[in-house]
């Protein structure tokens, strides 16, 4: 009863806040001399409009149809940016037109730091758009390195992440709403929300395969974040929860009714997890044409990962269904406890699921056959209390012992790899085609359906160093039947 009353109070407070925002005055961008011709640089005039509206006590800056060229703009408390259908904020392709945050030295096109009650809203059916011209901007960053104006190693012949601006970056903001906006063509991570409180992101569309490291939406150490009814197509992790600070948690998060496509992972916890993740719900989402895992939950940087629910995930043409992993990259013990994955359907690709992307995922960790789902802890830091329920996965099968082989008598040869960058393929060949489960304390598997389309030399499920396990209603289909479960 107490929790219900608190929730009602929270929702009522939010409703009153947003109604109050709607009642504030609306100002057209043209009032401030902001031009929609796509060639006039509007940075200073847009910023003047935002500052002036904030000084009046708040209100809305409305952009009508057109292309508004700009460098970094900073939202202020109680200000709404309203993009009418056909209005596009266009990012400058000059790296020097972007400001950096005081706290983190990160930079972006649309920025906010330490403010509250801010909104970015698209109006009418398709709303507005923010286009970062990321390929041109990224290439110009590289040109500045060659010119000696920016110092960078150009690792893998590309400029580092910290040099390329993001599209949206909100840091330590409170009461944030982003609705009905398209984010397109970033040079770096597309949208990053860092240490924000009470954030609602709804009906956004991320279409960003213009450059490397195009994470779609990064939720970093936020408390109270709802991402709903959105579509993300990104050339890196599509929806990514992170924890950059050992003193913070990414907590009270809900991702619901979203569709993700990625040349990395669809929905990912990590890689950075310094503080950790707690009380997260991933409900009724879809992942497709994705190179790495449909869902991956990682605790590898000394943080915690507790009370995570993944419910009703539908994934097709992906490289891997599920990967849970504990590591120790910072010489600190990490923790994972209370993971529930249920009502999931997945089809694993036989080939490269992101083939045709402008920036495909790299072919790596070969030789190996198609990897199974992984639930992989460490000897001194086991994954605890995992429930897998009502899950159906179709694998291509076809594991060939003459290409790569690891038998059931070779389990000790599977490397621990506590300091490796965590990906489902890092262990190379594994002795199972369905699930490989290692260093786990407390595992429940109910109503599991595994199907291999082609004969595979490996068994379906291998468990190694698993305490307190229970398997009920397991069905395995494969052309070469064998004992479905091996337990050591």
Briefly say what this structure is:
With about 500 residues, this protein is mainly beta.
Key phrases:
single chain; 488 residues; mainly beta; 5-stranded parallel barrel; disordered N terminus
Detailed description of the structure:
This protein is mostly beta strands and 488 residues long. It has a domain at 215-488. It is built from 3 helices and 31 strands. The chain has helices at 2-22, 43-55, 134-146; strands spanning 26-28, 37-41, 59-63, 66-70, 73-74, 79-84, 87-91, 108-113, 116-123, 128-131, 166-171, 174-179, 181-184, 191-194, 197-202, 205-208, 217-220, 223-228, 231-234, 239-243, 250-256, 259-262, 267-273, 276-299, 304-326, 337-348, 373-376, 383-397, 432-454, 459-477, 485-487. It has a 5-stranded parallel beta barrel with strand order 25-26-28-29-27. It is elongated. Residues 1-11 and 15-21 have low confidence and may be disordered.
């Amino acid at each position: 009863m107490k929790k219900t009353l608190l929730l009602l109070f929270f929702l009522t407070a939010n409703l009153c806040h947003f109604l109050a925002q709607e009642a504030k005055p609306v100002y057209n961008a043209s009032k401030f001399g902001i031009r929609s011709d796509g060639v006039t640089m509007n940075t200073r005039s847009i910023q003047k409009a935002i500052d002036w509206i904030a000084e009046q006590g708040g209100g809305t800056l409305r952009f009508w149809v057109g292309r508004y060229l700009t460098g970094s703009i900073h939202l202020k408390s109680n200000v709404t940016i309203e993009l009418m259908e056909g209005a596009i904020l266009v990012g400058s392709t000059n790296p020097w037109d972007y400001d950096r945050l005081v706290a983190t030295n990160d930079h972006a096109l649309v920025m906010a730091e330490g403010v509250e009650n801010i909104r970015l809203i698209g109006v009418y059916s398709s709303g507005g758009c923010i286009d970062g011209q990321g390929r041109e901007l990224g290439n110009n960053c590289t040109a500045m390195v060659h010119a000696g104006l920016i110092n960078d190693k150009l690792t893998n012949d590309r400029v580092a992440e910290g040099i390329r601006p993001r599209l949206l970056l909100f840091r330590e903001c409170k009461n944030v709403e982003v609705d009905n906006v398209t984010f397109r063509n970033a040079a770096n991570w597309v949208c990053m929300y860092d240490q924000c409180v009470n954030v609602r992101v709804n009906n956004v569309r991320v279409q960003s395969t213009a450059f490397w490291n195009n994470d779609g939406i990064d939720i970093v150490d936020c408390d109270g974040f709802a991402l709903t009814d959105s579509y993300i197509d990104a050339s890196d992790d599509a929806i990514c929860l992170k924890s950059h600070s050992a003193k913070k948690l990414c907590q009270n998060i809900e991702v619901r009714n979203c569709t993700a496509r990625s040349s990395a992972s669809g929905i990912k916890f990590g890689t950075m997890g310094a503080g950790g993740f707690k009380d997260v719900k991933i409900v009724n989402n879809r992942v497709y044409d994705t190179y790495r895992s449909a869902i991956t939950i990682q605790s590898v940087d000394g943080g915690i990962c507790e009370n995570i629910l993944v419910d009703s995930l539908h994934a097709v043409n992906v490289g891997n269904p599920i990967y849970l992993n504990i590591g120790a990259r910072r010489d600190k013990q990490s923790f994972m406890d209370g993971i529930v994955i249920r009502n999931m359907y997945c089809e694993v690709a036989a080939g490269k699921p992101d083939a045709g992307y402008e920036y495909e995922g790299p072919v790596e960790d070969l030789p190996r056959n198609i990897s199974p789902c992984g639930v992989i802890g460490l000897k001194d830091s086991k994954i605890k209390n995992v429930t897998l329920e009502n899950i159906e996965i179709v694998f291509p099968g076809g594991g060939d012992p003459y290409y790569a082989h690891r038998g059931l008598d070779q389990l000790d040869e599977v490397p621990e790899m506590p300091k490796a960058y965590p990906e489902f393929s890092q262990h190379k060949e594994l002795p199972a085609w369905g699930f490989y489960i290692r260093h786990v304390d407390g595992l429940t598997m109910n109503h599991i359906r595994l199907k291999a389309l082609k004969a595979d030399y490996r068994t379906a499920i291998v468990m190694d160093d698993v305490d307190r396990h229970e398997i009920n209603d397991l069905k395995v289909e494969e052309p070469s039947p064998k004992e479905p479960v091996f337990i050591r």
